[in-house]
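Session log. Operator J.P. requested a structure for one protein chain; no other inputs attached. Running the standard single-chain path with C-alpha cell output.
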Amino acid sequence: MNTQDIIQALAEILEMDASELAASTSLDTLDTWDSLATISFIALVDEKSGHVLAGDDLQKAKTVGDLIALAQSAAA
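Structure written below.
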C-alpha cells in the first residue's frame, strides 16, 4: 500500500475527506479516531497485507504518519 492509498482508506474509516489528513495530523485531534476506527484500521492492514498489527505498536502511534509507517511495514 502506498501512502495515498492508506490515507484514502483511513479517511473512509474516519468518515472524512482525505484532503483533511496529512502524515503530521495528530490522532488526538481526530474526533472519529476511536476504538472502532482502530479495529477497522487493524482489519484494513490485515486484509491488504495478511499481517495483524500488534496492539502495542498501534498504541504508540501518535500521528497519521505513524499509522502509514505501521501499514507499510506490515506489507513489507
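Operator note: Residues 3-75 form a domain with the Non-ribosomal Peptide Synthetase Peptidyl Carrier Protein; Chain A fold (CATH 1.10.1200.10).
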